[in-house]
């Protein structure tokens, strides 16, 4: 009997119960879906790193000897070491191939995707980047002709590989990897064309050891000490995972809170309206426990059904939305989806228990009354006149405002839930649109404001001054130097880029408002992200050194500028030469679209191609934007409609009284609309900074290389306003027919 009653009640109040189901479903759906994606990514890369035995520490130097290697191996905490030589080669008409000549393949081992296993005794073979090979139609058994520093040699492709240090690889200014132009190859040290000139530039270390101990073992003869977490590929991928994790943890909380609030208000109203039924059931002999479980079962059944459906569909749908864009950007041999994690069940059980507990709390007061008390009509709420009602302003604000203020103060939970619902909706829609704005603004900032060149020619280290001058004349270019550096301020360290200019006009530095500025000619200028990471301010002295050079240099920070992607230091040619360096450009910039082949040019990157790559990179972000917009729409409609229905039900007697007194249906509709708009204004006002803050948090997980411009665009605010208030008005109009059909006799008749 009670089961049939429960289904009848759900049918009569289907909108409220459907909303509870939807909120519970969306909370688990998003949590398990996004969780299945980021946990799958983390599991995939962790297994990849473990299988390949990725190095824990990377030490870079000019000539790491066997004695130095053994000295590091003997350090406490070190379990294994290996030396490696890294070179950049040119193949297939200016395509770049990074060569790793290894002395030992126990650390950072390649993953064999096709062909034979790696052989340290093979002097004529190489193991090639699979994605590079696929993009260029290279197969196992093909011959590769390469040029390194003017030295030409040929090797046979023995296998196709993935490399754990190249989960993320980008050999150009474009953030999107171009697998057709840039790749890597793994070779034995015995395959080096000129054995007498083989020098090792990298020392791979497994274990836990401090830099000081390594520095002492190497007699400070090294340039860079890099932990695994700071490696460009590792940190880039980990930042991506962290960003997705944060979104997957925060957004479900919004839907869970709305589900609980909806459950509380719906069950409170349901039990309150069924006082006589509860009293009748008690009078008929139904035990208190049976009646209690009957009402608690509403929350239990709805949340359980929603949670189970979310558990099933979340990992099946959401990860597959992200994987295409993720797999085009990162390289992992096996992509996994974490679809059966214990934490999913724990969170689902917690959600069901919370909804069940809220159902119990909502109905326990009425269920604890005696049958005689329950059969009596519920006493109306006592009217309390607030301080504001005693002021002269009260009589001037009009009946509409007076009536809504009193109703809101009498129903604080309903009012609070309305504000929270609009706040959540506004926060999500502002966050979604602001993320879209941030990505577009960064692209515009990077490619239209800062970098106004169309072509960037990357120069070979063997290029002559004469060749550089000829190329600059031919393409109307400007030369710059860009080097990887390590920056130090007190105990803080950070890797970055050193840019040396010589009257360059094709790169324009900007301030914190993205307005062009002119950097001072003395000292060095640093980007804002470096300033924040190191804690260094204008006028203070920092230290820096170029990768491959162990000498540290001191420089005064003369200016702090802002740049979207390349974080580091900028100085002019004169300052650079004062440190004893020779002016040897590494790149030439041109406002033209440059094509063709030039001697001494490793590669040519076009800005148009970089923009296309950026659009592909942001595809995953836009998927999240669309999910947020859909979620915001569902949240807004569900919350506002439920609250409108709840308000109408609770105020039905009052509305009938007002109608008897002569107020038209339009006047009553305005009463409800006024209250909805009040709550929408308050929720919207808090939702704007909430959405911007959430956007800032999400973008902060993109890593220290990106400086996202977070701002409140007028267009975004306008769309958010129209979206929020438009839904509020539409939901209010849904009750027009209810107000017109209001049965005044039934609403006003006395309860017997």
Description:
With 752 residues, the chain is α+β, with helices and mostly antiparallel strands. Helices cover 52% and strands 18% of the residues. The strands form two sheets. Strands 1, 2, 3, 4, 5, 6, 7, 8, 9 and 10 form a ten-stranded mixed beta sheet that branches. Strands 12-13-17-14-16-15 form a six-stranded mixed β-barrel.
Could you give a quick summary of the protein structure above?
This protein has four domains: 1-57 and 228-377, no CATH class; 62-222, no CATH class; 403-448 and 610-752, no CATH class; 478-590, Cathepsin D, subunit A, domain 1 (Beta Barrel), CATH 2.40.70. 52% of the residues lie in helices and 18% in strands. The protein has 22 helices and 19 strands.
Features:
752 residues; alpha+beta; 4 domains; ten-stranded mixed β-sheet; six-stranded mixed beta barrel; 22 helices; 19 strands; 52% helix; 18% strand; elongated
């Amino acid at each position: 009997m009670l089961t049939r009653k429960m289904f009848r009640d759900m049918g009569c109040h289907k909108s409220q119960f459907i909303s509870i189901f939807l909120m519970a479903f969306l909370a688990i759906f998003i949590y398990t879906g996004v969780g299945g994606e980021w946990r799958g990514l983390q599991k995939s890369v962790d297994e990849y790193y473990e299988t390949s035995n990725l190095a824990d520490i990377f030490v870079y130097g000019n000539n790491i000897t066997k004695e130095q290697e053994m000295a590091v191996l003997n350090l406490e905490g070190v379990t294994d070491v290996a030396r490696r030589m890294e070179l950049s080669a040119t193949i297939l008409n200016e395509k770049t191939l990074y060569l790793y000549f290894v002395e030992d393949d126990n650390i950072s081992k390649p993953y064999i995707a096709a062909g034979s296993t790696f052989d340290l005794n093979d002097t004529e073979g190489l193991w090639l980047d699979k994605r590079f090979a696929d993009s260029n139609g290279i197969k196992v058994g093909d011959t590769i002709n390469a040029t390194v520093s003017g030295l030409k040699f040929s090797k046979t492709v023995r296998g196709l590989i993935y490399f754990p240090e190249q989960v993320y690889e980008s050999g150009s200014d474009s953030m999107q990897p171009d697998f057709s132009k840039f790749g890597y190859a793994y070779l034995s040290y015995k395959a080096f064309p000129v054995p007498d000139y083989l020098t090792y530039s990298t020392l791979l270390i497994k274990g836990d050891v401090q830099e000081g101990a390594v520095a002492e073992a190497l007699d400070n003869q090294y340039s860079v000490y890099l932990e695994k977490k700071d490696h460009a590929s590792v940190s880039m991928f980990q930042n991506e995972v962290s960003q997705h994790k944060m979104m997957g943890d925060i957004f479900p909380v919004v839907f869970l809170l709305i589900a609980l609030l909806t459950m509380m208000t719906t069950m409170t109203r349901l039990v309150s309206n069924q006082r006589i039924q509860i009293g009748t059931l008690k009078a008929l002999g139904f035990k208190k426990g049976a009646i209690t479980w009957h009402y608690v079962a509403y929350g239990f059944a709805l949340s359980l059904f929603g949670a189970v459906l979310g558990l099933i569909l979340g990992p099946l749908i959401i990860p597959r939305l992200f994987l295409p864009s993720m797999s085009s950007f990162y390289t992992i041999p096996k992509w996994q989806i974490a679809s059966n994690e214990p934490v999913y069940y724990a969170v689902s059980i917690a959600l069901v228990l919370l909804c069940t507990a809220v159902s119990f709390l909502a109905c326990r007061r009425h269920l604890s009354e005696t049958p005689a008390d329950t059969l009596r009509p519920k006493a109306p709420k006592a009217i309390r006149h607030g301080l504001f009602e005693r002021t002269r302003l009260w009589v001037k604000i009009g009946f509409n405002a007076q009536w809504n203020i009193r109703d809101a103060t009498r129903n604080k939970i309903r009012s609070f839930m309305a504000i929270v619902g609009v706040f959540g909706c506004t926060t999500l829609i502002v966050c979604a649109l602001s993320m879209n704005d941030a990505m577009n603004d960064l692209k515009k900032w990077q490619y239209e404001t800062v970098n106004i060149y169309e072509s960037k020619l990357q120069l070979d280290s063997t290029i002559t001054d004469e060749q550089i001058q000829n190329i600059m004349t031919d393409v109307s270019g400007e030369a710059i130097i860009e080097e990887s550096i390590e920056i130090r301020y007190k105990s803080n360290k950070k890797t970055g880029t050193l840019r040396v200019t010589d009257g360059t006009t094709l790169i324009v530095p900007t301030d914190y408002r993205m307005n062009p500025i002119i950097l001072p000619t003395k000292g060095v200028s640093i980007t804002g992200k470096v300033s924040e990471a190191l804690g260094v301010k204008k006028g203070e002295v920092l230290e820096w050194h170029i990768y491959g050079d162990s000498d540290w240099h001191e420089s005064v920070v003369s200016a702090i500028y802002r740049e979207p992607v390349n974080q580091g230091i900028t100085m002019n040619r004169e300052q650079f030469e004062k440190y004893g360096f020779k002016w040897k450009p590494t790149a030439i910039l041109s406002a033209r679209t440059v094509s063709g082949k030039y001697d001494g040019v490793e590669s040519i990157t076009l800005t148009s191609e970089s923009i296309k790559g950026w659009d592909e990179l942001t595809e995953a972000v836009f998927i999240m934007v669309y999910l947020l917009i859909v979620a915001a729409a569902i949240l807004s409609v569900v919350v506002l409609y439920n609250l409108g229905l709840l308000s109408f039900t609770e105020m039905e007697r009052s509305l009938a009284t007002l109608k008897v007194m002569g107020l038209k249906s339009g006047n009553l509709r305005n009463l409800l609309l006024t209250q909805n708009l009040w709550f929408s204004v308050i929720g919207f006002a808090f939702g704007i900074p909430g959405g911007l803050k959430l956007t800032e948090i999400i973008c902060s997980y993109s890593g220290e290389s990106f400086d996202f411009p977070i701002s409140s665009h007028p267009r975004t605010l306008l769309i958010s306003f129209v979206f929020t208030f438009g839904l509020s008005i539409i939901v209010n109009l849904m009750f027009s027919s209810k107000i017109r059909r209001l049965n005044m006799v039934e609403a006003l008749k006395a309860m017997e």
